[in-house]
Automatic annotation (TrEMBL), chains A, B:
Domain of life (superkingdom): Bacteria
InterPro entries per record: TR_Rrf2-type_CS, Tscrpt_reg_Rrf2, WH-like_DNA-bd_sf, WH_DNA-bd_sf
PANTHER family for this protein: RRF2 FAMILY PROTEIN, WINGED HELIX-TURN-HELIX TRANSCRIPTIONAL REGULATOR, RRF2 FAMILY
Protein name: Rrf2 family protein
Source lineage: Bacteria, Bacillati, Bacillota, Bacilli, Bacillales
A Pfam short name: Rrf2
Length: 139, 139
DNA sequence: ATATTAAAGACTTTTGTTATCTCTAATAAG
DNA sequence: CTTATTAGAGATAACAAAAGTCTTTAATAT
C-alpha cells in the first residue's frame, strides 16, 4: 500500500522547478544533485513528466528543463498520474459482480482521495513556502 | 500505487465469514476453494487476520475459522491494516523539514481516505447483500 | 562543426509479493 | 490415550515490479 519512490522524486522536482525564476532552465545534473540521485535515473522520471506535459525540455547547449507554461493548473494528482499511470489502488481480481459492494467501497474511498489531490495545486504550496521564507528573512 | 493482492483476498474472506451463520466454523480448504487459491498461501493471510483479532481459529478436528465476537466493529481499514501493516502510502525519504508542505498534503489526503475506510463496516455491506439476495428470491 | 544536453533502449540489481513444501502444535472425538 | 484433523511456523523457491546503470542516439545553441 504505497506509491513508488519515483512519485516522491517527481513531486520534489516539480516543486523545485516551480520555485525557480520563471523561464530559467535547469539541467538534470542539478536536479539529481539536490535529491542525491543518479542523473540517468532521474532522467527517466523527467521524461515521464515531460510526456505528461507538466514540464518542457530542450536538448542541446543551454538546454534543460523548465516548468510548463501553465503551472497554475498542476495538481498533486497530475504528478502522481504522470508517474504511476492511471492504475487504481484497488483492483479486484475477477470483477465478476456488476454492482459489487466490496469494490464500491474501495473505489469510493480512493476516488475521494484522488478528488482531493486534484484540488491541491503545487503552486499553492510553493507560494506558502515563499511566504515562510520571507517571514524568516525579515527576522 | 496499489494494495497487495493479499488485502483483496482478506476482504473476500472476511465477507464470506461474516455472511456465514454465526458460530459455524469453516476450514482453510473451503475458503481457498471459493477464491481459487492454494490453501497454504491463504493460510498465511488467515493467520494475519487471526493475530489482528478479526477472526478466531481453532485447530484440530472440527476446527477452522470463524468471525470474532464483535463483527459489528470490523471496518475495511481494520482488514487493510491487518494485512498491510501501518505503512503509509506516502513516505518521504529524508523527512528533513518539520512542517513540510509536500508531506502535509500527501498525508492529509491519505488520512482522509483512512478515516473513510474506518467508517465503512463489513457488516453493513453484508447486510445489504442479504437484502439484495432476499429481493431476488422473492421474484 | 562542436560541445552540450535530453531521450531511448538494453540491461542488472534489488526488493517485495506470491506461492509451495515440510514440519510442528493444538484439539476434538473415539 | 491415541488418532485423525486442522491451524501455525519456517524455509525457500518463483515471479514481478521497482530502482538503478550504461551506452547509444537525437536535437540544438554557439
Ligand atoms: S466480489 Fe466484488 S471485489 Fe471481489 S472479485 Fe467480485 S466484483 Fe471484484
Ligand atoms: S521536502 Fe518534505 S516530503 Fe520531501 S523529504 Fe523533506 S520533509 Fe519529506
Amino acid at each position: 500500500m504505497k506509491y513508488s519512490n519515483a512519485t516522491n522524486y517527481a513531486l520534489h522536482t516539480m516543486v523545485y522547478l516551480i520555485w525557480l525564476p520563471k523561464a530559467s532552465t535547469v539541467g538534470v545534473q542539478e536536479l539529481a544533485e539536490f535529491q542525491k540521485l543518479s542523473p540517468t535515473y532521474l532522467s527517466k522520471i523527467l521524461t515521464k513528466l515531460t510526456k505528461a506535459g507538466l514540464i518542457e525540455s530542450t536538448p542541446g547547449a543551454k538546454g534543460g528543463y523548465k516548468i510548463s507554461k501553465s503551472p497554475k493548473e498542476i495538481s498533486f494528482l497530475d504528478v502522481i498520474i504522470a508517474i504511476e499511470g492511471e492504475s487504481n489502488l484497488f483492483n479486484c481480481s475477477i470483477h465478476h459482480n456488476e454492482g459489487c459492494l466490496i469494490e464500491k467501497v474501495m473505489r469510493e474511498s480512493e476516488d475521494n482521495m484522488k478528488e482531493e489531490l486534484s484540488n491541491r495545486l503545487l503552486i499553492d504550496i510553493v507560494e506558502k513556502m515563499e511566504l515562510q521564507k520571507q517571514a524568516k528573512e525579515s527576522n
